[in-house]
Amino acid sequence: xxxxxxxxxxxxxxxxxxxxxxxxxxxxxxxxxxxxxxxxxxxxxxxxxxxxxxxxxxxxxxxxxxxxxxxxxxxxxxxxxxxxxxxxxxxxxxxxxxxxxxxxxxxxxxxxxxxxxxxxxxxxxxxxxxxxxxxxxxxxxxxxxxxxxxxxxxxxxxxxxxxxxxxxxxxxxxxxxxxxxxxxxxxxxxxxxxxxxxxxxxxxxxxxxxxxxxxxxxxxxxxxxxxxxxxxxxxxxxxxxxxxxxx
Length: 247
Prior knowledge:
Blueprint: H1 2-5, H2 9-18, H3 37-49, E1 55-71, E2 90-103, E3 109-114, H4 119-132, E4 138-143, H5 152-160, E5 164-168, H6 179-189, H7 199-215, H8 226-239
Parallel strand pairs: 1-4, 4-5
Antiparallel strand pairs: 1-2, 2-3
C-alpha cells in the first residue's frame, strides 16, 4: 500500500492506527438465519435459567471424527523452564464419535462412543440415557439441528417414550449448547496431549476421562438472559449490515 500510494510505510501505519484498522487480524463470525431464532432461544435459555422440577435438563451432542493420533516420536515431558513438547507430525490410527449428555445442574456427563453418527447410533444413545437416568424424571434434551436428530425413526421413538422432550437450538447457534464447552475442555485438556496406538486406546481414554470428570463434576454457570442475548445478536447483525434478529 505504501508503494502504490507513494508514501512511507510509517505513514500507512499511522493512518491505520488513527482509524483503528488492523488489517493483520482476521476473525470469523456466523449469524443464524433461523426464522424461529427468538422462540428457540427463549426456550433453551429458559431451561438453563429455570430448570423444570422433577426433570433433568441434558445438553446433548456428538463430537465426531475424534482421531487416534500417534506422534512419530516420543513426547518430551515438562521440565523447569521448558514446556511439554511433541512432534508436529503424526500417524492416524482410526477415529471414533463421542455421544455425550451434560446434566446442566449437576455437571455430570453420560457418554458413549460409536463408529458412526447416524440415526441408529443416536437412538442407541437415547436408550442409554433412558437406562442411565431415574425413570420417574422427565428428560429435556437440548439438541442442535442435525438431521439424524429428526428422522422419522427418532420421532416415532420419542412418541413411544413421553418422558423425552426435545428442544432445538436455532440453526447456526451451537454456542447455545452447553455440552460444546465440555467438548472444548476435553479437547484442550486431554485429547491434544495424548498419543494413541489404536482406536481402542482412544475410546478407553474417553471412558476414563468421563469417569474421572464425574467424580468431581463442574457444571457451567449460565447467566445471560434471552433478552440480553437478543440485544447482542441485534448489535452484531447491525455491525455487518443486517437489520435486527431473524423473523
